[in-house]
């Protein structure tokens, strides 16, 4: 499974039923957290997300609605007995803020926190492991801000069990078949790998565009993505306010997803002024039909 | 009215139905906040507390479950358009933490934040206005920690309307009567103030003991208080763990309230390990019968 679960879909001021930004990415039974607004640890508990399985946390920028919940989550993970290392990716000042708060509380985390500083106007590979690659890129916001591209490339071939059994290949050998090995039978004949396996599934990609003004420089990062998250703080009639505050509108998000040829669009970071979110769909769907609202507690397959 | 409303009654790790420490004190339609754990701004909204009326915030110490919600609340107050000044009282490092987070977000608060640093092993008057005095004192915890004593002294005398009318004193003059003035009638005779008023009600006092190990040095601060909040992180059987972590048990809180001659005791800061709070009452009531659980959303008159 490769999916994203929304923990918070609201912009700066929380409302009674919407929380500041946070998302959980699930892949291979591992979890990654993207942004961590105030109350994220409560949302994780509420939606029964296994906090202990989070190995990487990505913080897009240092506006509070994207990270004020991080220090509380780190504290709780430590109190809950975590010893597995945890990687955090974010602007360099974040490390100083965390360390200062740990120091004044005389807290020593029980786990190893590995901090990776993101630098303005850079782009690149943050993480590469078995099936998952994470790249980052700058977005245009009032302060340095980063988007993240999560690409799940299944590197293993898919064994066709009936075929493998027909050639009398033991199940214990299947993991080698997944890696592309041929099989030598007892009589010395060779079973070629591609007779009994299928190529790995193509990579699937989720792109999180964080907070951003409408910016066509994002297109290369979004291009061809299976699912793109783009903020829509405001509806179309507040386009000027959106620009003034380095945010985007519904129409702008849909336009960008369309121009970039994304497959599906997820919209969120709604201003607290909107109690009803339906107008966001009404404005995006005519431009980009494959749009969904980012709803808290909902999981979207990539 | 002089009352305290509980917003959070839990210790470090929030549970789905209990939040980290925060309390609102209401007096003369003014509000003060005592501690501000993560999610306090959501709790204020949930319980429909008028955030704009908060003028003073007291932070007992820099363990996260007592202040991680402060920066988010400050941000939201500013975004909501507050311009009234706001006073914050807490350990000196708190100011640096707030300023660093504002700076990295390029945020300038729209209101004047007045920071008052509390210093270890000091005690004294923090605030004195019309009816309210706030003192602070050190408690014994793992890091510097402070308790607060809120004393509401009605300085105005109480007019007896029937008496005042009998002497034909116009209602417009009642506010001067409250201040202790005599009244001169048209014929030059004097109506003495104490003929038509009663003395101000005696001071009422709420003492918040923050986080603390069992410490009889607190007795002078608690003595004779109308309502005392004392933490009970653990039940009696975990007395050793409580001491190791500079926390208290149910039995210890009740014992201290009894020794100090407090009138009523409010207990809270329950460890997340306890789903059922009834045992806390079962252990305190035999020692100190006027004990109540600090329950979220509940208001206790002082």
Tell me about this structure.
Two copies of one chain form a homodimer. By secondary structure, the first copy, chain A, is an alpha/beta fold. Chain A is built from ten helices and 18 strands. Chain A folds into two domains: 2-154 and 203-301, Ribonuclease Z/Hydroxyacylglutathione hydrolase-like (Metallo-beta-lactamase, Chain A, 4-Layer Sandwich); 158-198, no CATH class. In chain A, 24% of the residues lie in helices and 28% in strands. A seven-stranded mixed β-sheet of chain A has the order 6-5-4-3-2-1-18. Chain A is globular. The model of chain A has no long low-confidence stretch (mean pLDDT 95). The A-B interface holds A 12-16, 19, 38-39, 41-42, 45-46, 62-65, 68-69, 71-72, 75-76, 79-80, 91, 93-94, 96-97, 100-101, 104-107, 142-143 and B 12-16, 19, 38-39, 41-42, 45-46, 62-65, 68-69, 71-72, 75-76, 79-80, 91, 93-94, 96-97, 100-101, 104-107, 142-143.
Stretches with pLDDT under 50, minimum 5 residues of chain A? none
Shape assignment of chain A: globular
What is the second-level CATH architecture of the largest domain in chain A?
4-Layer Sandwich
Question: What is the CATH topology descriptor of the largest domain in chain A?
Answer: Metallo-beta-lactamase, Chain A
Task: Give helix and strand order of chain A, one letter per element, not per position.
Answer: EEEHEHEHEEEEEHHEEHEEHEHHEHEE
CATH class (first level) name of the largest domain in chain A: Alpha Beta
Strand order of the largest sheet of chain A: 6-5-4-3-2-1-18
* Annotated CATH homologous superfamily of the largest domain in chain A: Ribonuclease Z/Hydroxyacylglutathione hydrolase-like
* Most extensive contact: A-B, 37 and 37 residues
Oligomer category: homodimer
Distance between the termini of chain A: 9 Å
Using DSSP, what is the number of strands of chain A?
A: 18
Structurally, the number of domains of chain A stands at 2
Based on CA atoms alone, the radius of gyration of chain A comes out at 22 Å
Helical coverage of chain A, percent range:
10-25%
**What characterizes the major β-sheet of chain A?**
7 strands, mixed
Going by helix content, strand content and strand pairing, the class of chain A is alpha/beta
How big a fraction of the residues of chain A is strand? Answer: 25-35%
Helix tally of chain A?
10
């Amino acid at each position: 499974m490769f999916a994203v679960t929304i923990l918070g879909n609201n912009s700066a001021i929380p409302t009674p039923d919407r929380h500041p930004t946070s998302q959980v990415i699930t892949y291979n039974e591992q979890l990654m957290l993207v942004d961590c607004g105030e109350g994220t640890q409560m949302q994780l508990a509420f939606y029964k997300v296994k906090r202990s399985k989070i190995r990487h946390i990505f913080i897009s920028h240092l506006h509070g609605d994207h990270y004020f919940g991080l220090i509380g989550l780190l504290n709780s993970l430590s109190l809950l007995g975590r010893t597995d290392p945890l990687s955090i990716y974010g602007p360099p000042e974040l490390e100083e803020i965390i360390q200062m708060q740990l120091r004044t509380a005389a807290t020593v985390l029980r786990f190893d926190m590995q901090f990776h500083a993101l630098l303005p106007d850079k782009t690149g590979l943050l993480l590469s492991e078995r099936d998952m690659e994470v790249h980052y890129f700058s977005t245009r916001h009032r302060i340095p801000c980063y988007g993240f591209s999560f690409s799940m490339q299944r590197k293993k071939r898919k064994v066709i069990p009936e075929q493998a059994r027909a050639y009398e290949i033991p199940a214990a050998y299947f993991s080698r078949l997944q890696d592309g090995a041929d099989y030598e039978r007892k009589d010395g004949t060779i079973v070629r790998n591609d007779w009994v396996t299928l190529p790995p599934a193509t990579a699937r990609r989720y792109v999180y565009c964080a907070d951003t003004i409408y910016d066509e420089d994002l297109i290369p990062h979004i291009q061809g993505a299976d699912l793109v998250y783009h903020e829509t703080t405001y509806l179309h009639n507040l386009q000027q306010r959106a620009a003034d505050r380095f945010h985007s509108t519904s129409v702008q998000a849909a336009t960008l997803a369309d121009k970039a040829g994304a497959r599906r669009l997820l919209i969120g970071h709604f201003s607290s002024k909107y109690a009803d979110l339906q107008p966001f769909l009404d404005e995006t769907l005519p431009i980009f039909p494959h749009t969904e609202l980012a709803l808290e507690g909902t999981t979207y397959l990539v």
